[in-house]
Amino acid sequence: MGIEKGITIIIPTYNGGLIFSEGLEMIGRQAYAGPVQLIVVDSGSTDGTIEAAERAGAIIRRIDNGAFHHARTRNMAVSLAAFDRIIFMVQDAVPCSDGWLSGMAHGLEEDGVAAAFAAQIPQMGATPYARFEIESIARARIEAPVLEGVQSLESFQKMPYDRAYRSVGLDNVCAIYRKELLEKTPFPDVDFAEDLAWAVKISLLGHRVLYLPHIQVRHSHNRSPDYAFCRQIVNSYWVARILGRVREDLSHVSLPDLMRITVRVRSFMMQEVQNRRYRLKDGKKEGLFVDRLPGRYPLIHRMRLAGAFSFLSRQWMASSSRAEEMGRKARGDIAYQMAEIEKKYPMRDIDEWFETLEQVTANTLGRIYGEVYASSVLEGRVPRPLEEFVRPLLSGV
Questions:
Q1: Computed over its alpha carbons, how large is the radius of gyration of the chain?
Q2: Which of 28, 38, 51, 182 is the right S-S partner for 58, CB 3.0 to 4.6 Å?
Q3: What is the pLDDT of residues 19-45, one digit of tens each?
């Protein structure tokens, strides 16, 4: 006896707030004729999330707050699904039209398509950086050439990094799957990027993943610089492990090199502040992201950095040409992103400009630190100071 035709929507939640209620409202307005089941897996919400889900007619599965796992929780939820197609969403993704559900369902109609995922646009209250980030990703996905499927593990391993990454692109912000394939091939047991890991496995089995640029959900995050920095590291680490490669091998870069790059980026950031004649308030002077970051370094490295004006420290700062080159590139990347953001997303005031600069700086440094760590992991030799710095940052994202 086959699986009943219809769509099951699964949403993991934890204090989803008003935006989760908006999403439920839009789900309830869908012009879709087939049967729909809504399942909410909640990790201990206390803000009315469960009550909102119950009013929407959802089946509620409660789990302990510490029990949530990106892969295992979703695999458990698959067993609750009644229908042959499953949509996984996040709690802050809001469908943009009444035809969203029908559009998602059509995404699985092409031969060989195992899963399809929707495009994202920023939330109404997105910061300039959040808008820039989401719209840049959407633009890159649209402009990417259509790729043939993965033919074999050998061919996948030989693909250039960007091509390999695009060929298995999948995003559980809003994605639809064939239930039978999720049952045969569950999400791999990874702590992050379970969607990407599944796409790699399913592609090697001869299936395809499809991007649906005409089907949209509102989704973006106004993240703090500290969280954004950590998330970039986590993303680099898990993507490298899943793909078995990095875009550029940076395993030769040490933690002292990263510290030198950070100092140079801070100098550039302060020059930008001075050029704008922006006056940092006392609270901001004490709370800059680039000034909090060194507090995470191992003690001996913090001591080296603290002597920034001694002869030995100046000699230490000047001792790495690779750090100088990477520092120049990082400064160029930050300048380019800031120019693009200012051109496309006008700032309300100078304070918003500064907050955007902090966001761009944190994300840029996070990518660099993450690629260095991921490269070292793939090489099988992570220097102890780098491991001590990064390891505490790999959880909680």
A1: 23
A2: 38
A3: 999 999 999 999 999 999 999 999 999
Predicted TM-score of the model (pTM): 0.91
Backbone region of residue 148 per phi and psi (left: phi > 0; alpha: psi in -120 to 50; beta: other values): beta
Asked whether the predicted pLDDT for residue 225 surpasses 90, the reply is: yes
When pLDDT is averaged across residues 292-311 and rounded to a whole number, the result is: 65
Q: Higher confidence at residue 238 or residue 294?
A: 238
The answer to whether residues 169 and 199 touch, using CB atoms and an 8 Å cutoff, is yes
CA–CA dist 65, 10 (Å, integer): 18
Burial class (CB in 10 A: 0-12, 13-18, 19+), 80: middle
What the block records as the tokens of 148 is 């043939």
Count, residues in the chain: 397
Q: Which two tokens stand for residue 209?
A: 């993943």
E strand spans, the chain: 4-13, 36-42, 59-62, 83-89, 94-95, 113-121, 174-178, 208-218
CB contact at 8 A, 45 and 14:
yes
pLDDT in tens, 232-248: 999 999 999 999 999 99
Q: Answer for the pair 38, 57: CB distance below 8 angstroms, yes or no.
A: yes
The residue to which tokens 């004490």 are assigned = 286
**Which of these, 372, 383, 375, lies nearest to 258 by C-alpha position?**
372
350 contacts 278 by C-beta, under 8 angstroms: yes
CATH class of 4-222: alpha beta
Question: At residue 310, does pLDDT exceed 50?
Answer: no
* Domain ranges (residues) in the chain: 4-222, 243-394
Residue 298 has pLDDT above 80, yes or no: no
